[in-house]
Every structure is written in structure tokens, then in C-alpha cells.
Amino acid sequence: MTILVVTGTGTEIGKTVVTAAVAAAAAGRRVAVLKPAQTGLAPGEPGDAAEVARLAGDHVTAVELARFPEPLAPATAARRAGMAPVRPHEVAEAAEKLATEHDLVLVEGAGGLLVRFDDEGGTLADAARLLSAPVLVVAPAGLGTLNATALTAEALRARGLECLGVVVGSMPDRPDLASRCNIEDLPVAAGAPLLGAVPAGAGALAGADFAAGAAGWLAPELGGTWTVPSL
User: Mind listing the GO molecular function terms for this protein (predicted)?
Assistant: First the structure.
């Protein structure tokens, strides 16, 4: 697994911290994180790729292909800014180039799997298909996550893409009933294993503390030691 695409069932659900955890768990390997389209930030502000590098460690190379100022879907943000959009083939080409120089390339999407990169309808799913790369789905813990996860997994299957598994992007310290039950039900909804749960607030940790904890949040398939807890 040289290239792994990281998507989510929506926005603001922990894709960046999960990407950082996977990168941190790969310490000792050369890791690149590729953010095809960063939206909602001005030039010079640290984006998601830089945040992954901050949290995961200095073995991570952070690459951003395009940045658009308004916090919108990439296609909309590019159009409103009068800027060229990022297209799936550009994402695939950048990831493949990084893979020649790194042991692992993590491609972190914006929003969900089918958010448009351009006005022709290109998506992260199209980039994953060009790369023949597996896709890791980040999902929230609580009520409503099962439907969104099932829809994302169904969209992956319809495109012949492999869903490597699901990681909970922000697991509460004291999960409610729905969150506890979803630990068991998420793999059923996804048709793929649950591969970890990152604790809520992990993204606020100092880099060294985050990197030290990352392996305990991820399953062995992602380089960690986490196992599914009993209800």
C-alpha cells in the first residue's frame, strides 16, 4: 500500500487528525501527505497538510496543490476566485510522483468522497480510481453516522474502489449510547473493518504527544495496536 486516499462522510469530522495519526504510526518510513485542494485559508496560513506534518513528525513531507480563499467546495471556491480548479488527473499525477520518493503517500480529500473538484464533476473518487488506490473512510462516532458511512461505502463499491476500512475521527471521552453501539455497527454499514478511533481533542495535542499516542488509536492494518473495544 504505497498510496492511501483518505476521505470522510462529511466535513469537519476528523480527516486531518486521522491522516496525521496514520502518518505518525508510519514513523521510520518516508511519508508524504498530499492535500489536493485547501479551501477557506489565506496565503501563508497553515493548511491541513502542514497540520499533519506538525502532528505526525518531521518524517512527513506536506504538499498542497491548490488553495482557494473561501470555505466552500473546491469547484465552487475555484470558480468564485477565478482560479483554475484541481482536476483528478492532476491529483493522481502528483501522488504518483510523490510515491517514487516516499514509502507512503496519504491523499486527504476535502469534505466527502463526491465533493466536486471542478465543474466537470471530477471528484476524489475519480482520483482514487486513476491511482487504483484503497480508500480509508473517516466517520463521526454519533447518531447519524451509519447512513452516511453506508452511502460512502456504496459509492466506493459502485466505482470499483476498495474501502480499506473506517476510522472514527473524534471519539468522545464518555461516548453516549449511540456512539458505543456504532463501534459495532459501523463495520456493518461500511462492509469493511473498523480500523481505529482517534480521541476527541487529539488534534490540539503537541506534536510529540500526538505522535506518541497515534499507534494506540489505529489498528494493526494501519501500523497501530488498537483493537475494537467491547461494548
Answer: ATP binding; dethiobiotin synthase activity; magnesium ion binding
